[in-house]
Write a structure and sequence with these properties.
By secondary structure, this protein is mainly beta. The protein has one domain: Jelly Rolls (Sandwich), CATH 2.60.120. About 10% of the residues lie in helices and about 40% in strands. It has helices at about 15-20, 140-145, and strands at about 20-25, 25, 35, 50-55, 60-65, 70-80, 80-85, 90-95, 100-105, 110-115, 120-125, 135. A 5-stranded antiparallel β-sheet has the order 1-9-6-11-4.
Length: about 150
């Protein structure tokens, strides 16, 4: 796939290549397994906000935006879903379906979460508190910004 650009004053970079699966520690126990996530140890940023998506109706999608500065780490805590990533010039889809595997998303990647299985839970760890000004909600504005 061709790479995207850094945009927003950044040097050219392969943004989609920076989005990657990270395997978290998995502690296996007959009583039930345990996975842990620690700031700046298991994810490449300090965790400043945590939220989760659940009860997503069949056929619905979440996301549909990009972030100017915020980084995220997505985990399918239960069930499965697909994450469609777009850097303004290339796209790829990643399926999340294991609670010990997470997807690191750097800034300036448009994402859409689709194909939620029944009962799925998407855990999101974020590098910054919520700030509406950090969002690109218009795809054309996002593409114009990353093309610079």
């Amino acid at each position: 796939m061709p790479g995207g650009t850094g945009g927003a004053g950044g040097a050219a970079r392969r943004v989609l290549d920076e989005a990657r699966i990270i395997e978290l520690p998995k502690i296996v126990d007959l009583r039930g397994n345990l996975t842990v996530v620690e700031s700046s140890r298991h994810v490449p940023f300090e965790i400043r906000r945590v939220y989760y998506l659940y009860d997503v109706p069949a056929g619905e999608s979440r996301g549909g935006h990009a972030h100017r500065e915020l980084e995220q780490f997505l985990v399918a805590a239960s069930g499965s879903f697909d994450v469609v990533l777009d850097d303004g010039s290339s796209r790829k889809t990643v399926t999340l379906n294991r609670p010990y595997l997470g997807l690191y998303l750097p800034r300036l990647i448009w994402r859409e979460l689709v194909n939620f299985s029944s009962g799925s839970v998407c855990l999101v760890l974020a590098s910054l508190p919520y700030d509406e000004a950090d969002y690109f909600r218009d795809y054309d504005e996002f593409r114009t910004t990353v093309a610079r």
